[in-house]
Amino acid sequence: MIDVTCAVIRNDEGLVLSVRRGPSMDNAGKWEFPGGKTRPGEDHEECIIREINEELGISIIIAGSLDPVEFDYSDKFVRLIPFICETLASKPVLTEHDEFRWLRPADVLKLDMTAADIPVAEQYLALNSVTPTITAVHESAEGVPEHGLDAEAGAELGKMVGRITSVNEITMVAKSAVSDPVLLSQLVTLSSSHEKRVGFMSSWALSKVADMNIELLTPFLSSLVDALPGVPNESVQRSFMRVLMKSGTEKIPQSHHARLIEYCLGIMRTENTPVAPKAYGMEILALFCEIYPEMVNEVTAAVQLAISDAHGGMKAAGRKVIARIRRKE
């Protein structure tokens, strides 16, 4: 049996990436979720991250997994190991495939997919049809939101958040938090959880709240800045930085400007920093250059360093940031 990994890659809009197999590949013309064979000594997680980078030139974050699918192609027996992944990329660079599409989950099965990928698509679609019930744990008798959780409340909400697997569920959590300040405060607290999945899902919900009503997160911005250096994983870092970027520097307390600027400069200067934090860091620094024009040269140098060995899309984004802040000198 051959172990093959594949990635159900979704973007910030919840659309899923499908790619069509090129003329030089088996099953040419069929659509699939990208991925590839596991190499000797390589675990499945390492394999899918490597394969997506090699095949599509994009960075992904693993957010979950689906049940393996075994399929007999007559000439080979394959065990397909699917992962649910996140990306900020919008345009993959095709090296083996000849077309790509970003689709709603319900539309993926309308494609002419390979036989092994159909059960994967069905699993993912089933997950996205689930709607959770969200109940905040209110700790204040006088109706004032408590910025924290007691142990019991945190454990219960953390368990619920940790079971989330779909974009629809995250969106429902975010919608509930928009109308419930206690739940919103609890999500901020859980975002710093050292249980990776709980932190990831909670911070992702905050990012969705930012899309719905960014003003609601203003009271928490200083807490997000304080928490950034110690966030437990890159997905939480990405969500926090996205919220800070969308909020704008005018909403971030001046007492926290220097701390956030130094943090973003550090990201630019650190090798192997993931693409998403670098991208958000560049945008945040560009916003600060409008307030502190004396920073332009330092920020320009930091961005140039950050994109020196980056792929084409990141280089283009960095050059745009540099051009924008230079125009305002």
Task: Write up what this structure looks like.
The chain is α+β, with helices and mostly antiparallel strands. The protein has 2 domains: 2-128, Nucleoside Triphosphate Pyrophosphohydrolase; 151-327, Leucine-rich Repeat Variant, CATH 1.25.10.10. The protein is built from 13 helices and 8 strands. The strands form 2 sheets. Strands 1, 4, 5, 6 and 7 form a 5-stranded mixed sheet that branches. Strand 6 (69-72) and strand 7 (77-86) form a beta hairpin. Helix 4 crosses helix 7 (196-212) and helix 5 packs across helix 6. The relative contact order is 0.09.
Task: Reconstruct the topology from this structure.
Blueprint: E1 2-10, E2 16-21, E3 31-32, E4 35-37, H1 44-56, E5 61-65, E6 69-72, E7 77-86, E8 97-103, H2 105-108, H3 117-128, H4 151-162, H5 167-178, H6 181-190, H7 196-212, H8 221-227, H9 234-247, H10 257-269, H11 275-291, H12 296-306, H13 312-327
Parallel strand pairs: 1-7
Antiparallel strand pairs: 1-4, 2-3, 2-8, 5-7, 6-7
